[in-house]
Design a protein that fits this description.
Elements (H helix, E strand, L loop, with lengths): L2 H71 L2 H9 L2 H18 L2 E7 L5 E8 L2 E4 L12 H7 L7 E2 L3 E2 L1 E2 L2 E2 L5 E10 L5 E10 H11 L6 E5 L5 E3 L18 H4 L1 H9 L2 E5 L3 E10 L1 E3 L2 E3 L5 E10 H8 L3 H49 L3 E5 L5 E4 L1 H7 L18 H10 L4 E9 L5 E12 L5 E10 L1 H19 L3 E5 L5 E4 L1 H5 L5 H5 L3 H4 L8 H15 L1 E9 L5 E13 L2 E10 L1 H25 L8 H18 L4
Antiparallel strand pairs: 1-2, 1-9, 2-3, 4-8, 5-8, 6-7, 8-9, 10-11, 10-16, 12-13, 13-16, 14-15, 17-18, 17-21, 19-20, 20-21, 22-23, 22-26, 24-25, 25-26
Length: 645
């Protein structure tokens, strides 16, 4: 692909890509913004529904307590006790009220506190059971705010105290016990005020109901008093700060601007830098008859859910990765499509010429390959051949069956038959073939079957190489190997450190070792101890002499496996294989020569004595027979000592 062709494709692909890319990006942005808006609306509606449920649940619980207070204040046994001082009615009151407490399971105390602030009776709920306080255990609550705020209310009014922690004998009860007190004034039959009837409602039930109602919030839920203190906070450590005089534990201290909006409005929902706020006010109102009357001194709790910005936008952006991936895939496909269209458009003009050029190059490559390439059909007839194939078999090979060129009987067809059946895809075979000039040559064939588009076998394509010379060389090497193994001398090759690399049969057999055992040995292991003194130095000197003289001849003694010594003559020379030097040695056993030499030395000594006797004038008459034996013995010894003579 030339540069001009690439440039034409690039420009056209870019042009075709611009419009779909703009459309894909615009669609992705639109989907993302729409998803964000929909999810924000969904999250807002979700949080508002939860806060409504939380507010309704709290108001419903408080309304139930208010109804109980109103009902108990008119209870006939209580009226008897207040109006007529019938003390026997007190027992019925206590029993009935205790039964109500067990049934409700959420009232901590029910008390009658008279107009002086003194508790007249009190029933506590502890660990699933009721406990009626004795007279000596009753306390005066005149100074407590809930008594002062409820005792002077109009008759029939209901008072609901703020949330706080229960106080016993002037101290906050531990563990913390959140409490709401709901009371109503009492009067006797003469219209005189007789204090209040008050129920201590366990605020934990109210908080728990609110938590259950808002548990599905995407963020956190809170209950705040009118000053912003946490009655139920983001974490337990934030709660009841006003009881501990901790002005820092308020929503206003933590989120000033957000609290200002929440405190100034009755209900609402807004999003700011901190996140999404949803809130409503639970008013604690007085009640006169059936009419609710809000007064200036009335207050309310703020119930709030807060979804932090990171949580909110994580939810709002949860579809962003999918939109991004879809956009990237769309752009990628659009890019591929644009490039493909541009490529096909430009390629169409030159497809035919490129195909012809490729076909020409392919044929040229096949024709120029030095190996023989032949194609046969299912009838094993040659249908195509490259130049080397035509040169080897002759120009008239096309149309002839392959068997016509076989030399001698061979099972080549049996080997190739599974290839044409399709049971195998390729096969290697060596076959003697007749060249066009009549010479017999050994060819190595690599055959691969050919299939059509339906997978049917249509023939085979084979590559062949003339390996006749390699075959002949291998025969020569085999013969040389046999000659080496048959040699009477020991043929040994070792590296320059003396480690054995090759041993003919005579080398290991005459020394009593197996071939494997001796290959693990070295010259140091084989030479007698007196020849291995300063082994490394001696070996280096021998190598230097061979480099200088070309070869070296030395006599040493070899140790057999059984400890026997063999005197040997070593003729060694350096050879080089793959640019690395080795020592090749011919080692001859000279035991017989050594023995003959000893005999000769004795004979020479005797002849020396004879000569001395003659020089001294001593005449010896020698028998011709003895002289003849001595002469033959001398000739034999001389031949053994000097075999080349």
């Amino acid at each position: 692909m030339n540069k001009k062709f690439q440039k034409d494709i690039s420009f056209q692909a870019i042009f075709l890509f611009i419009l779909p890319a703009i459309a894909i990006i615009g669609l992705a942005l639109y989907v993302h913004v729409s998803q964000q808006e929909n999810l924000l609306v969904e999250a807002s509606a979700h949080e508002m529904a939860l806060i409504n449920a939380g507010k309704t649940g709290m108001e419903g619980s408080l309304e139930g307590v208010k109804n109980d207070v109103e009902f108990l204040s008119h209870y006939h046994e209580l009226r008897k006790y207040i109006d007529h001082h019938q003390h026997d009615a007190k027992i019925d009151i206590l029993n009935d009220f205790a039964l109500l407490m067990k049934h409700r399971n959420s009232y901590d105390q029910i008390r009658w506190i008279d107009e002086t602030g003194m508790e007249k009776f009190r029933i506590d709920y502890r660990n699933g059971d009721t406990l009626i306080k004795q007279d000596g255990e009753l306390q005066n609550k005149k100074g407590r705010y809930y008594f002062q705020n409820s005792a002077g209310l109009p008759i029939g009014s209901i008072y609901v105290s703020p949330f706080d922690l229960n106080v016993e004998h002037g101290k906050v009860e531990i563990p913390y016990k959140p409490m709401i007190r709901i009371a109503t004034p009492l009067v006797d039959i003469h219209g005189h005020r007789r204090g209040i009837l008050i129920i201590n409602y366990l605020g934990s039930y109210l908080i728990e109901k609110f938590q259950k109602s808002t548990a599905a919030s995407y963020g956190t839920s809170m209950i705040l008093d009118e000053q912003g203190y946490f009655l139920k906070g983001e974490k337990a450590a934030d709660e009841w700060g006003f009881m501990r005089h901790r002005s820092d534990l308020t929503l206003g201290h933590r989120y000033p601007s957000s609290w200002n909006k929440i405190a100034s409005e009755d209900h609402g929902q807004f999003e700011d830098a901190q996140g999404l706020w949803t809130f409503k006010t639970v008013y604690l109102q007085t009640k006169t008859s059936s009419k609710l009357v809000k007064r200036d001194e009335d207050f309310g709790w703020k119930v709030v859910t807060f979804v932090p910005a990171d949580v909110l936008y994580e939810k709002l952006n949860k579809h962003l990765p999918m939109i991004f991936i879809a956009a990237v895939i769309g752009l990628f496909l659009a890019g591929i499509g644009s490039f493909g269209l541009a490529y096909l458009y430009r390629k169409k003009e030159k497809a035919l010429s490129d195909f012809k050029e490729l076909q020409k190059k392919t044929e040229g490559i096949l024709l120029s390959i030095p190996d023989i390439i032949m194609q046969v059909d299912n009838d094993k007839r040659y249908v195509w051949a490259n130049t080397q194939g035509l040169t080897f078999f002759g120009a008239d090979v096309i149309g002839h069956e392959a068997v016509e060129y076989f030399e001698g009987e061979q099972d080549t067809y049996e080997t190739v038959h599974p290839l044409l059946e399709g049971s195998i895809d390729s096969v290697y075979v060596e076959s003697w073939q007749r060249r066009h000039d009549g010479q017999k040559r050994l060819l190595a064939w690599w055959c691969q079957n050919l299939r059509d588009e339906e997978g049917n076998i249509t023939g085979a394509l084979s590559t062949a190489r003339d390996i006749t010379q390699e075959y002949e060389r291998e025969k020569v090497l085999t013969m040389q190997s046999h000659l080496l193994e048959a040699a009477k001398d020991s043929i040994i090759m070792h590296d320059l450190q003396g480690n054995f690399l090759y041993l003919n049969e005579n080398a290991w057999k005459t020394r009593g070792y197996t071939h494997e055992e001796m290959l693990k040995m070295s010259v140091r292991d084989l030479d007698a101890p007196e020849f291995t003194v300063d082994y490394e130095k001696r070996m280096a000197e021998v190598v230097d002499q061979m480099r200088t003289n070309g070869s070296i001849r030395i006599e040493v003694e070899h140790l057999c496996k059984n400890g026997e010594r063999i005197p040997v003559e070593v003729n060694a020379k350096l050879i080089e294989i793959d640019k690395k030097s080795y020592v090749l040695s011919s080692v001859r056993d000279i035991s017989e020569r050594k023995a003959s030499q000893q005999i000769l030395e004795k004979s020479e000594k005797n002849i020396g004595i004879w000569s001395n006797m003659q020089r001294s004038g001593f005449t010896v008459v020698m028998c011709p027979v003895i002289f003849s034996m001595l002469t033959r013995h001398w000739s034999k010894c001389s031949a053994m000592i000097h075999p080349t003579s």
